[in-house]
Write a structure and sequence with these properties.
two-stranded antiparallel sheet; mainly alpha; 6% strand; 6 strands
Length: 303
């Protein structure tokens, strides 16, 4: 594919780290834009970027090492897992919100919307690099990766070709991989669709802090569980990959939060309510709470 964005003389710009960094930057910029629309203080949120970048890179690298048993991780060679980045970033976001007096559900909503585009750009980098590849296929949409050779004549990838040679699917003199499912592009497309859905339903979740984050995690985790059947990943438990197990855990957590919200409100009509209806319902709820407080104060004074 396109392992280098720029390759001129001694100047080499690898596609994977470039798209990975671009995804973080663009995703965070979108998150800031959403934060402004939600009337949040974006100046207090902007300092989260360096903390979030470090947690994403470190979390993804640590999870990659644990999952695949690599003793070392080369960031320019792939070496990242998305769920590791998410798990490591959540406590960083929580601590940052506590110290900067930010409302956590709102911050998670804004970051979730930006994360969709960040994931899409990152998966394009994976496709260019040839990592996170799909299973072999005879379909018309299959992609065959050519062998990558650096200036010194050393074979450096892509991982698709190297793994197929190591598994005996190809001979040692192979110059191209067998056609594989372009799962990276499918995931990028689905991430963009999730972004469109979240933006289109902003009137629903804008007045329900945390709903966009739950929607993003629920939809993405469900999609990720099924697309993993078409990815080359080691099976961990019950013939499931580590990403599938993590997807199940996230879907269960999202379902638990939604069930708790439904039980507390008594119905699910709030999910389909318009923004004006939600504001009106919240106003009535605040009025009732204020009336109850005044009534309690009156009873205490009489006693």
């Amino acid at each position: 594919m396109l392992p280098y964005i720029v390759r001129c003389g001694n100047l080499h710009v690898a596609a994977y780290p470039f798209m990975y960094g671009l995804g973080i930057a663009v995703g965070f910029l979108i998150a800031l834009t959403v934060a402004v629309r939600l009337e949040m203080d974006w100046k207090r949120l902007i300092h989260l970027l360096p903390c979030l970048t470090i947690s994403i890179v470190l979390g993804g690298a640590i999870a990659y090492r644990l999952q695949f048993g690599h003793t070392s991780v080369d960031f320019f060679d792939g070496g990242q897992t998305l769920y590791g980045a998410i798990v490591c970033s959540i406590p960083v976001i929580v601590v940052y919100c506590i110290f900067n007096h930010l409302y956590l559900p709102r911050v998670l909503d804004a970051l979730s919307v930006g994360a969709t585009i960040g994931i899409a750009l990152g998966r394009v980098g994976c496709f260019c690099r040839g990592c996170c590849e799909g299973t072999t296929t005879l379909g018309s949409f299959g992609v065959s990766y050519p062998l990558h050779i650096d200036l010194s004549g050393r074979v450096v990838g892509p991982p698709t070709v190297l793994s197929q040679i190591a598994n005996g699917q190809l001979g040692p003199d192979a110059i191209r991989s067998l056609p594989v499912v372009p799962v990276q592009l499918y995931e990028a497309l689905v991430s963009v669709l999730i972004f469109i859905v979240l933006i289109g339903m902003r009137g629903v979740w804008a007045n329900k802090p945390g709903l966009a984050a739950l929607g993003f995690l629920g939809i993405y985790s469900t999609w990720r569980f099924f697309i993993e059947f078409y990815r080359v990943e080691p099976l961990v438990f019950l013939r499931l990959t580590a990403s599938q197990i993590m997807s199940v855990v996230l879907v269960v957590c999202v379902g638990a939060f939604l069930a708790h919200s439904i039980c507390r409100s008594g119905d699910i009509s709030w999910f389909f309510a318009s923004a004006s209806d939600v504001r009106e319902r919240q106003s009535r709820s605040r009025t009732l709470i204020t009336a109850r407080r005044h009534r309690r104060k009156g009873l205490r004074c009489r006693s």
